Amino acid sequence: MNDTLENLTVVEIQQYQQNRYPLLFIDFVEEAIPGKSAKGYKNFTFNEWFFPVHFEDEPNVPGFVQIEALTQMFLMTFLTLNENKGKKTGFVSIKNAHFKRKVIPGDRMDINASLDSFRRGLAYGTAKGFVDSELACSIKLVVAIPDILNQFIPRKE
């Protein structure tokens, strides 16, 4: 049985997933229930590398960064299962990406992710980002762990 993990720092998060600076987009995991859900946040400071170019006169978090932050929290729903810790992952699909408000320097995006199913190396679920309790973005995801998925691909003899 996997126990709930609480208060994971950025150093501890890196033990579970392979994302690293400058592409690690979650700062803290408040709670991860392996095989079920994860919640935590990303603080977007003005020092982020993308703000000067997106956009100089109106800095805001690019959509791909928001998607990646949501996905990284989603990864914590299944990479916290003991047998998956530290494994490489890859996108299979992103559906219904919605951006409801701008995320700007100084915002903290609270992220909730839930795992609907995990079978044969494929994880299905959703993630939502909130700023000041207001929905900022949301996605439905399918993410693979290739090491597991490849075991189920039929081989030519």
Describe the protein in words.
There is one protein chain. The protein is an alpha+beta fold and 157 residues long. It has three helices and seven strands. A seven-stranded antiparallel beta sheet has the order 1-2-3-5-6-7-4.
| Gyration radius, rounded | 16 Å
Spell out the helices and strands N to C.
Answer: EHEEHEEEEH
SS element count, helices: 3
- The SS-based structural class is alpha+beta
Major sheet size, sense and barrel closure? 7 strands, antiparallel
Strand order of the largest sheet: 1-2-3-5-6-7-4
List low-confidence stretches: none
Shape: globular
Overall helicity: 10-25%
Kindly report the average pLDDT value.
96
N-to-C CA distance:
38 Å
Quick synopsis:
It contains three helices and seven strands, in the order βαββαββββα. By secondary structure, it is an alpha+beta fold.
Characteristics:
single chain, 157 residues, seven-stranded antiparallel beta sheet
Set out the fold topology.
Elements: E1 5-8, H1 10-16, E2 28-33, E3 37-43, H2 63-78, E4 90-99, E5 108-119, E6 122-131, E7 134-144, H3 146-149
Antiparallel strand pairs: 1-2, 2-3, 3-5, 4-7, 5-6, 6-7
